[in-house]
Design brief:
260 residues, alpha+beta, 2,3-Dihydroxybiphenyl 1,2-Dioxygenase, domain 1, 2 domains, eight-stranded mixed sheet, 5 helices, 43% strand
């Protein structure tokens, strides 16, 4: 397994109002934005963290997705050594392919997949064949990845087969509710957690990204509300003494905030 395979490399917001979303997240997370000009005819904005590094992008929600009823949403792209082989393996494991492998000039090869429970993610092989250097999260990075699903145990098996992810620590959240953390094979620590959806939950299985911000979580929550967003849960203390909350932006995309 290479240094790319199983690492989450990119985070993309597909939305119905790019200008409003750029202002909203810049106020909440502290991102700066930069137009991607390397690809002729492509209208794409890059999110920059506190070190000026690109961590994700912003684009219009594609019309076919709108016609299928897809709301604005965040999408995580997981690095793989071979996109086509990963898509074939995912299909054998019961996944649904939303977008078969395709190439983006100067960027790399991409596919969009829904896992067997329905949570959507992307797979990505950078054109350079290299992944960004690993380092502790800085402000503006994604510091945690959370899957809420219909069958967390089956999901961990699926992602373990596909990406080499392994179970790490676990916490009991209540009767029958285990929060299972996971990490990448060969790496220390955890990069996210998985848990079952509560009974009668209104949302489908989904991935949520936690954006690491400077200052207090309470202050970030006030910025969310001032910008027209909605707090879904929290702020609350999490293991280790940090704080986090889940929210929804003005266009309806869900996200989360992590603060010291």
């Amino acid at each position: 397994m290479s240094d790319i395979h199983g690492r989450i490399l990119w985070y993309e917001l597909m939305t119905t109002d790019r200008d409003a979303a750029a202002v909203f997240y810049s106020e909440i997370v502290g991102w700066k934005t930069q137009a991607m000009t390397e690809i002729p005819g492509m209208d794409y904005t890059v999110w920059l963290n506190s070190k000026g590094e690109g961590i994700g992008g912003l684009m219009d929600l594609p019309e076919p997705a709108r016609q299928m009823g897809a709301p604005p949403h965040w999408l995580a792209y997981i690095g793989v050594d071979d996109v086509d082989a990963t898509v074939a393996q995912a299909t054998e494991l019961g996944a649904k392919i939303y977008a078969p492998p395709f190439d983006v000039e100067t960027v790399g090869r991409i596919a969009i997949i829904a896992d067997p429970q329905g949570a959507v993610f992307g797979v990505y092989r950078p054109a350079s064949g290299q992944a960004p250097a690993k380092s502790p999260p800085v402000f503006g990075d994604v510091s945690w990845h959370e899957l809420t699903t219909a069958d967390a145990e089956a999901a961990l098996t699926f992602y373990g087969e596909l990406f080499g992810w392994r179970p790490t620590d676990a916490m009991e959240m209540g009767p029958g509710m285990t929060y299972q953390m996971f990490g990448r094979e060969g790496d220390e620590g955890s990069i996210g957690g998985m848990m079952n959806l509560p009974p009668n939950a209104p949302m489908p299985p989904n991935w949520m990204m936690y954006f690491y911000v400077e200052g207090a979580a309470d202050d970030a929550a006030e910025r969310v509300k001032a910008g027209g967003g909605r707090i879904l849960n929290g702020p609350m203390e999490i293991p280790g003494g940090d704080h986090a909350f889940q929210a929804m932006d003005v266009q309806g995309a869900a996200f989360a905030i992590h603060a010291k």
